[in-house]
Amino acid sequence: MFDITRFTEIQANPSRFRLLEQIPFSVEDHYPIKLRETVGDELALALLDFETTGFTAGNDEVIEIGLVQVAYSPSLERITEIIEITSQLECPKQTISELITSITGISNEMVAGTRIDGAHVARIVNSSNVLIAHNAQFDRAFFDIRFPEMANKVWACSVKDIDWRAHGFESAKLEYLLLKNGYFYDGHRAATDCLAMVQLFESVPNALPELLANAQKASFKILAKGVSYADREVVKKRGYRWDAANRHWYTIVSEDEYAEETVFLNALCGTAAAKNVFEKISLTSRYM
User: pTM score, two decimals?
Assistant: First the structure.
């Protein structure tokens, strides 16, 4: 809590203090909320977040969905309106652990008898041009299992599709990004996390245009089958991951990084470079 007894100290030496404000949006607000005058070229975007029984899609289950649909003007490069917000619980087949309850605040009693309204979710998702999540690889994995009929959507990630270091931030963690911009929020509830993303895009205006531009770029999955055992640490440090089932290293790069990565692998692998496989990822297959 803010110590209101220290106002005199703050006024005397304000550079030693930093004031934090709670994000100005909440689940209880009345929507739509206009952020600025509309232009007429707006696109609908859906910000999405899940709370789940664990971290592995296919084994764990969704217990809450948060959806915030916004209107975005490409000419202004800003969100002009928060159109609507959705917060719905769902009772899983498995028991919610004490750990998950401690993280999310969601208990077995809260979700008993609840079910996410699939038709409602479909209306918002199908009327949105892009689905945005803060760690889209996690959320998409759960989304495609829970809503397989909508598994062909374009996804963007507010972690990976924005170069936060270039914007002056050392981490892409949502709470950290907002704290650095002077805001806090009560995290780990799905809809609130979506509203936190709205505030982040308000605080860092260049971030959302960058994300949307990157969401339209081609990307490539590189199966680095020509990498030798001796070079394993080289590719690991470069961000490659090990596919244990198929026994090769792999990475995903954007079209901007494709040429540089090809040159790197050719030099590293030598004659074995012919074994490397480059697969183009469609816009609707990103973060699968």
Answer: 0.91
